[in-house]
Amino acid sequence: MPERSGATLYRVELPMAVDFDHPAKRRSASDSLVLRLEADGATGLGECAPRTYVTGETTESVTAALHELPLDTVFARLRSTEPASLLARMREAGVAETFGLRGGNNLLCLLETALLDLLGRRLGLEGRQLVPDHGAPAMPPAVLPVSQVLDLSLDVEEFLDTRGPFHFVKVKAAADIRRDVRTVGAIRARLGDRVPVMVDANMSWSSEEATGHLAALRDAGADLVEEPLAKGSWADLARLRARTGLGVMLDESVCTLEDARRAVESEACDAFNIRVAKNGGPVTAARLIGLARQAGLAFQIGVQVAEVGPLINAGRALAFAHSDALTVEAGQADRFFPEMVVSPRPAVCRSTNTIAPAAGPGFGLDLNEHAASWAVSGRTESDPSWHPVSTTVLHAKEHA
């Protein structure tokens, strides 16, 4: 039987049943790229969710970059290297160094998640075993509690009435700081001091106004504020922490290891928001967690709004591998999407607001019948050029 390899790219723009609204973006549909790799009968699924305001990437720019990558060298390496050795190398060095590739964080995430999934399937390993876990607790729990997020589309009273039980609350900031102060006060009045509360400003405040905002939120009962200033405002963030005493979590400012080191050296934050797509895949995300531990900082395992499958389970694998996170965001795919492109649907137990590890092997997902309509391009081993998917399908049939 001839050796076969190929790839199909899907741009998934699933309409959301409910919008999600925050200072940087109002979202009513997903905008993810899903990559299906096949190498001699083994498959792997990857995903990225580019956000211009986070890494500067778009689905169009990632697609163009993927089409320029020498995937033949990736398939050749998959054939020439024993799977366990290749996985060990990837967990140590990441996809870029292992395969000699270059690209933005979302492109690398797309490839890294697909390749880790493929190797996990070949080796019969579950997601937690595919991501680096150096320095993590030895025994992960059976379930993890997850955050609840109050965005601008929902009233605080409805949120408190319908979204519990609460383990950690993130409030998306409004244009009016007085509304945010009232919201934090209402949460504290209902929940008391037992649940941490964080306000996410998504880079929307100026240095001049931020000191007053943080002081007011601190007095209302907030524990943390996330990304209060423009990206990379290292000196201003350090002064803000010193003046107000309120903890700062950085998200958009910390996309790379260099960003994280700069944040630590500047004393600009108390915690990192780790997100698999933003940080270039599970391996770099795990390195950032290690850097946070070394610096005495906390970290959150976060999500991009409206992830559609592989990213969800890759993030959960990272969370169970590093169960000492300050909190874990599980996303709201169950609320956003009546139908998904993967099966089984990544679940959240809403009666407890907890998640369990996804069943493997790999990240434990397959594309279902809803995925086909989102396919945009593909390539086969006999024709390594990318083609619109209909052409690819016909070409593959001709050479079957």
From TrEMBL:
UniProt keyword list: Metal-binding
Keyword RNA-binding in annotation: no
Residue ranges annotated for the Mandelate racemase/muconate lactonizing enzyme C-terminal domain, each copy included: 156-247
Gene3D superfamilies attached to this UniProt entry: Enolase-like C-terminal domain, Enolase-like, N-terminal domain
Pfam families reported in the protein's UniProt record: MR_MLE_C
PANTHER family per record: O-SUCCINYLBENZOATE SYNTHASE, O-SUCCINYLBENZOATE SYNTHASE-RELATED
Protein name (database record): Enolase C-terminal domain-like protein
